[in-house]
Amino acid sequence: MSPEIQLAGIHPRSEKLIELTRSYERAKTSWSQVEVQLEQDTKELVKLQKSLGIRHISDGALGWQDQLRPISRSLKGIESGTRYSRWFDTNTFYQKPIVVGKISAGETDPKNFLQTRLLAGEKNRKITLPGPYTFSQLSENKYYEKYPDLLFDIAAAEREIIKNLRNEGVLLFQLSEPCLVYQPYRETFRDESEVELALRAIRSVVENNPGEFVIQTYFGDASPIFSKLLDLPVRGIGIDLFETDVSSLSDQTSKTLVLGVVDSRESYVEDPRWIADTARKFREQVDVQDLVFASNSDLKFVPQGIANQKLEALSKASELFKGNR
Amino acid sequence: MSKLFPVQEIGSLAKPKWRTKGLRQPLSAQDLSEAEGWAEKLGIDDFHDRAKSILKTSDDKTRTKEVLELSTMYGLRLFETAGIDNDGVGGEQQRVEMYEHVIKAVQGMHLLGHVHSFDYKYFNKGVAESKISRKHPIYAPEFSDVKKYAHRAVKVPITGPYTLVDWSFSGYYVQKQRASSPKTRKIEAKREFLQDIVEQVVRPEIRDLVNAGASWIQIDEPAVTAHPEPQEMELFVEAWNETVRGFSCKFSDHTCYPSEIGYKVLAEYAPKLDKCDQLALEFANRDTSRLGVDASSREGYSDLKHFVDAGFSGEFGLGVAHVHDFTGNVSSGAGEAVGRDLIESPELVRDRLLYATKIVGNPAKIWANPDCGLRTRTWDVSFAKLANITKGAELAREAFE
């Protein structure tokens, strides 16, 4: 079987949807007009995924204002809306969750997370959520005295949200954990005990929780913690091949590895032969059965036309990879 | 300037509807009614003559020129009426926005489409398709109008080379690299792209502005704090120093919304920036909305200490007013939340200035300004914020009398 292709996060909005949202913000367009286009964009994205043979279908989270917002709005103990912070080293921003009380899961409105109606016919739904460690790292803590208490309360709340989304038919949950591998914003490099703490928090989200899980890392080199990631009780581990030092990887795993092998931060569309070659070289290094081809992070960093071409390149690369195994 | 806590703007103001529409199509008297409403408030005495001329012209080019000139004058008057001391360029009325306005003037670059920035904000992102050069002057025509109409000192904000490169796709520059590591290819591409932007685009632009009489240029580099790695910071410093080399005018840097590490890394490198007389920085966004000059009330300003500790000896342009949507709580006396806006009280502005003075040590080194350009706020809100900054600066001044 050829490697599966997956969307790895938020997909870009179409120029038409962008124009309507801008016009909505200027009070020149009604929200219902925006919704019609949002649905249209989502339908087209679902159609594109199907045409490319993608098995786990995502709605592209086209309505999400940032990667944390739906979770922020679903948690008790969080305030947001006053501060914007930069999303890692990109030119995009997120509303910083401010922790002002004990965190627990509030009411989960599935509509805040995914376009349930438009995914009605899809059995293998995928959603991308921030992992508990990344969410806690990107929040501002004004309540907890001890960081582990914050982290594990976020994990417990996220576990509940995931259960609710599982009831809405989501099968595959990608928990994005860029903070596990991205370092520059930190004054000190995280030590082994902090990595262990983060992994324990992830475990507490996924263990005995129905659904399949992928832990996706990006914007940093996953090689220092790769073997630890492989020990997590999840279906797959994702790594950013534009940041990870592949030559230092040498493990063997029965897990699925999600290769972030197209760059969501550059506009040129990768040659499918290069993608397939890169994946082959990776497999010479790491003994793995199942590979997934994906972008290294959300494709929202490139215009929609380019994002779609990158998905097509992944699909062609998957065929080439299969043909030459 | 001997006055303590002078007030400046940072760059943009929202564009009035008549300015936006007037660039696309002929205007009606109805379209100009909003401008008429503001004319009296801003003291635009010849509004009716100018309106008549705009309405009667059938030539698109003439209308565009007149509309841009008038909107620049409105921006300048808004700043002056609010009481600020430096007019900037009247709210950047002649620019699309800080990035696209420049990229459109660069040979070899192509705008690819919009990418998400936050909420319903996007920017049209460009790619370098070949070696780049400047097609035509970018800011000089605007500066010519500003010189004609400004009643106060002006400074010209320009988008810095590091930010122009960082916000663009490298395209041509990354594809020509031969290093085997994708990471190395990217950094080498950035270096080469940056050198070309400095030499081919930004320096020729500064030369034109200085020759036209500009005495203060603010280089906007919001992207720099997104990359606190030493390799990137050294690239930034190298590009800055090359950009300002040989020019005799005041230079300042504006940076805002840093990544999680805050301004600590910029502070470390700021003393290495040649001729950087002022750092204008966003702080209010991260501060509390309650009065007080203690560290807890003014938590948003703690990073100032890093600059002092690192030995930066220039001025600070202190962000004392938030420029984005606000939905939090405001304590008594600190201001008023009106819809999605926070109008900071003069007392809150005063406390921010006084707290900053405690850290910096010398009140003569502190200017008051909004966190960033006010383009996302209405003119009513921008005016109210600027007027309160002016009043807050007066209150702070009184503390030193």
Written overview of the protein:
Chain A is of the alpha/beta class. Chain A has one domain (4-13, 54-323): TIM Barrel. Chain A has nine helices and 14 strands. Chain A has a seven-stranded parallel beta sheet. Chain A has a three-stranded mixed beta sheet with strand order 2-5-7. In chain A, α1 (15-25) packs antiparallel against α2, α5 packs parallel to α6 (192-206) and α8 packs across α9. Chain B is an alpha/beta fold. Chain B has a single domain, classed as TIM Barrel, CATH 3.20.20.210. Chain B has 14 helices and ten strands. Chain B has helices at 17-22, 33-42, 47-56, 60-82, 100-103, 140-149, 161-166, 172-175, 182-211, 230-244, 264-269, 304-310, 346-360, 379-398; strands at residues 106-118, 121-134, 156-159, 216-220, 250-255, 276-281, 315-321, 335-338, 341-344, 366-370. In chain B, a hairpin with a 2-residue loop joins β8 and β9. The two termini of chain B are 17 Å apart. Chain A binds chain B through residues 10, 12-13, 15, 18, 21-22, 24-25, 65-66, 79, 81-86, 88-95, 137-138, 184-187, 241-243, 263, 266-268, 300-306, and chain B through 112-120, 122-123, 125, 127, 166-167, 169-171, 174-175, 182-183, 186, 223, 225-229, 257-261, 264, 285-286, 322, 324-328.
